[in-house]
Amino acid sequence: MKRICRPVLFLLTMAVIYACHRMPATANDETFDYREIYLPYSFMCDEKELGLNCVDRDWAIWGHNLSRVVPEHHSNSIYANVGGNTVKKQFCFSSPQLLIYISKFIDEEYGANNPQRFAILPNDNDIVCQCARCRELGCTPTDASPAVFALLDKLAGNYPKHTFFTSYYLTTKQLPKAPLPDNVGVLVSAMDYPLSAAETPQEQKFEQLLKDWSSMCRNVYVWDYINNFDDYYTPFPIYTVMQRRLQLYARSGVNGVFLNGSGHDYSTYNRINTYVLAALLSSPDADWREVLTETCRRLFPNAGETLAHFRMEQEDYVVSTGRILPLYDGVAAADFYGKMERLAASTTGSECSGVNRILRAVTLTRLELMRLEGITPEEVDKARALLARLDSIDDVSVVNMNGKIWKTRIYSESYWTVDSYISDYKQMLDLCSGQKGNLLLHQPLTALSRLDEDYSDLSVLTDGMAGLPSNYHCGQLLSSADPSLNIALPAGRRYRRVRVGLTTNIQFRIALPLRVTLSSGGREIASMVPSPVLAPSGRTTVEFDVPAWAEHGTLVLRFFRNPEVHTMAIDEIEAY
């Protein structure tokens, strides 16, 4: 349940806390039957400590993992039929064989009398089976709901002690025509309900959606979001926003909430967030400020009140601006880094260790602030020192349910790592020093073709800051223009050489252009095929010599997209 990231800067006041001890939960209202906070500490704390659920413990099948029931040697009849062809990317939910496989999995792994939750969801795509059985049930090329409901009805009848869930998502967005059995539920994604402390136009629509589902279904769970998924390290002011949402869920018939955070990966404030959000899940009307303050005092005898004050300033800023918190966004600017340094210097013992751990984590935020503002030659050494501090962050050890210990320095949902960030940033600093004499530095460019809605700021191409290939938001222009993206350089200057930086990221299907051309007055000067990228840099360049005859015409760069790949990334454009 994701969406494409949006590079919109959002100014947050930074406050940070790291907690080292336990504190009892503060409320016992038990508003929601199912309460999960998907953060590292929730996997570590005792099940009864905060009364939280856990996907690793409380679900037999979670998410889009129905393939778990399929044996090694299986029948192709379980797959979707589209246009007379078997499509293995999706299931046929009217398949008798699929029902047999699910039933056998339940019988062998859990039995009929040990209550479990099962997510019986289509795979994460928009394919719908169009076999005769599915069409007879009422499925359309865009709606698989009737076949899914029919399968859930059979499973619910055969296994009355288990609970089976569908989802409100992609091809299963239709309400049932009749109330579902008591042991059938729905997972409703809150992705379309913006994170805001103020009322939004989508709020009333989402509330009505929840009420509609609760009238047809006894178990309505909401899948909501509590992190910036591009940056787990910059603190995210979520308490006021989430309190409003949980109050809405409580009055709309919701009886379960899954708060999607950084999972097993470290995120700043994750332990404090677990305590405060657990109190709100237990009682949406709880005073989170009181919980936060008391928690900080217990965990940080010297620095607690100061840290709690920082955190509340963040929340107050969000309320005062009325802005929507971006889930998938570039990291935010902040200015409390110096205060954190002084705070770290004034604490001792385990408290000092905790504050220093967080200080190292939010160094990434400080580096991003420098990058977004533009790094001058005088600031390069300072940036390198910050990179050294970021590199000192400890690996985060996590124990999973199988007892395996693993370590990670991942800072985003897309698996961007601290190590790749540091490597890219060092390359950027090296490239920054070569900008002397660049005639395009901070000059406006003109788009002569369509720009993507979320990537329409051409200033990133002349800001003097190379992009970070491992994080495709940072300093690059993404484009899906067809067949080419055309950009004009400012007229009236004598350019002798034009250099274009390009990046690629195979993981996210971002490819180099097939070719790049430079023309003047409609006459092509040259056509260049980008050289293959040598891993792990993710970066390459093309250069053009500009002949004297071209000086009177407008220079235009054309980037021809590879039609087999949806996106290409253009980095800095320089001219000398």
Q: Provide the β-strand percentage band.
A: 15-25%
CATH topology tier name of one domain? Jelly Rolls
Return the structural class: alpha/beta
The CATH homology group name of one domain? Galactose-binding domain-like
Give the spatial strand order of the biggest sheet.
1-9-8-6-5-4
CATH top level label of one domain: Mainly Beta
Average pLDDT value? 85
How far apart the termini lie comes to 46 Å
What CATH architecture of one domain do you see?
A: Sandwich
Helix content: 25-40%
Please provide the count of β strands.
22
Biggest pleated sheet: 6 strands, parallel
Shape: globular
Low-pLDDT runs: 1-29, 397-403
Q: What Rg, in angstroms, do the CA atoms define?
A: 27 Å
Tally of alpha and pi helices: 15
3D structure, described in words:
The structure is a single chain. The protein is an alpha/beta fold and 576 residues long. Among the domains are: 61-161, no CATH class; 349-428; 437-575, Jelly Rolls (Sandwich). It has 15 helices and 22 strands. The protein has helices at residues 40-44, 55-58, 96-109, 132-137, 145-158, 201-216, 239-251, 270-282, 288-299, 304-321, 337-345, 349-361, 363-373, 380-391, 418-432, and strands spanning 34-38, 79-82, 85-91, 117-119, 163-168, 184-189, 195-196, 219-225, 256-260, 324-325, 396-399, 405-408, 446-447, 477-479, 484-488, 497-503, 510-511, 515-520, 523-528, 539-545, 555-560, 567-575. The strands form six sheets. It has a six-stranded parallel beta sheet. Strands 13-15-21-18-19 form a five-stranded antiparallel beta sheet, with no helix packed on it. Strand 2 (79-82) and strand 3 form a beta hairpin. Helix 7 (239-251) runs parallel beside helix 8 and helix 11 packs antiparallel against helix 12 (349-361). The radius of gyration is 27 Å and the shape is globular. The two termini are 46 Å apart. The model is unreliable at 1-29 and 397-403 (pLDDT under 50).
